[in-house]
Amino acid sequence: MVAIDATIVSLNGAARFQAKPKTKASRRTIVVTGHGIRGLLDALEETAGNPADSPLFPSARQLGWRTPNNIRRQLRTLLTENPHLPQGFQPHSRADHSRRQPPTSTRRSPTSGSATS
Questions:
Q1: pTM of the model
Q2: How far, in whole angstroms, is CA 90 from its chain's centroid?
């Protein structure tokens, strides 16, 4: 399981960590299975020496947080190029964005070592 206890927001085109999500509903726990577990374990192993509050899946260019727009773009590309994957994932549209901030990055929890977003 992955605890979602923070979020990333885009401010002037740059990703910024926001420790307190907008709503209580934004804090949640997600069950991760199969490939997701393997991906998280691989990422934890690769980033084991990084500070606890660093991104688990950093941006490729700056090794920092990924912006919400880049996450949506990458998800659309992944689903378009891999039609065999479950197609139920939908990036939030701009109209939806004002109501709900999608989880955008995963980081290690400073207290438990578990991945959080």
A1: 0.57
A2: 14
